[in-house]
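Blinded run. Sample ID left blank on purpose so nobody reads anything into the name before looking at the predicted structure. Input follows.
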Amino acid sequence: MAGVTRRARSEADKELRRAAILDAARDVFDAVEFDEFTMDAVATSLGLAKGTLYRYVPTREALLLALLTDEYTGWFDAVDLCMRDAPADSVAPLLVDELLERPRLMRLMSMMSSVLERNVPFDTAREFKVFLLARSTSVAALLAERLGCTPVRATQLLVHLHALAVGLYHHTHPAPVVCEVLADPALAVTRIDLRTELRHGIAALVAATRA
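Blinded prediction complete.
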């Protein structure tokens, strides 16, 4: 993070500062539980005063929403690239694999509606939703072509994919005390494997979309 403490004056400097802030947020987020993710921690890792950090990001949740945008961009880019030559029967596993290769994305997705979008300014929330719409529309067009369905049905598939992934993520990441409870062999049937259930669920969604 060399040079981060220097005041950003030009637009290029400001963009470098924003990138450094996002990198620091990523490192802190990966290292702590959500409740321990603070603007103080990010500022300290950058060698910045917390007040300086707030010049770039209005709230903790807005910072994490920016991180989620970056994670979504990686997923959308990967799906967009793979989908161009993907046969219909490979769509479901492709969508699952690209999600599960991004545990940070899955973790942030699980907080999006319930936490991250609840303490951000209007402009930040709107910018995020406009971004999601644009990228979803682009990927939905490719999905529609591959699955032989309408773009509307393909968009619905993406919405249901998000809901399924978030729901299963919560079920497969229970509280520590619940993990201890589920270690009981008698409760083995209640344990859920994320990859298995996500593949099964998305395959069903894709089949319904093609019907």
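Unblinding after everyone has recorded impressions. The chain has a mean pLDDT of 91.
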